Amino acid sequence: MLHAIEQEVVLPADGKLPEVFRTAFGRKARVIVLLSESVVVEGQDQSDANPLMAFSGTIDWPVDDPVAWQRQRRGEWDRAWDR
Description:
The longest helix is centred in the C-terminal third of the chain and has 10 residues, at 66-75. By secondary structure, the chain is an all-alpha fold. The chain has two helices and no strands.
């Protein structure tokens, strides 16, 4: 017989399960985690990408047509006996 524990909780940052799951500790269990669409982790700085954005558009890429460049590169992979 299966026993289900269904509880909506916030998991702490250390990843330890809350006491409500004590009956499952040390036992084989099937775990299903459902997260809401917008998950915000405490302590996570949302501006982590800001330093990288300073480089946006600053890379001088010498390729005018990326598709043609990629096809040319793939053409170099061809072996003589495949042609």
